[in-house]
Design a protein that fits this description.
two-stranded antiparallel ribbon
Amino acid sequence: MQAGTPADRPAVRASLLSAGLLTAALVLSGCASHIPPGVAAIDPVTVIATDKTVIDHVAGWTTGEDCSSVRAEKGGHWCVQPYENDPVTQPLYCYRTLGNVSCYAQPSNHPADKLIGLQEGGRQRTW
């Protein structure tokens, strides 16, 4: 008959140590990011180019919102509704002047001015 507690035996001690290490590994891995190595290599490039991680892009595609971890780290919301910048554009009336082309928001009333271009929706190209 052996004296002492069951934890004094080598087999029991090894089992308890294994169980403790496994529990610690499971607890600590709950805070880890499980990103595949290929994605982890691309992530810095996408953050530099777009201020979004690969996960941000996937979240944005699935939700239809603008998601950015960089914005969230700065104190903003992670996902926001996309901003639609549809400026109201007016047509430009373009006339040839001395060695140049001048464009105006309204047509000229001067009879000598000859319209050389009408750009619907504002200045989109140059002559």
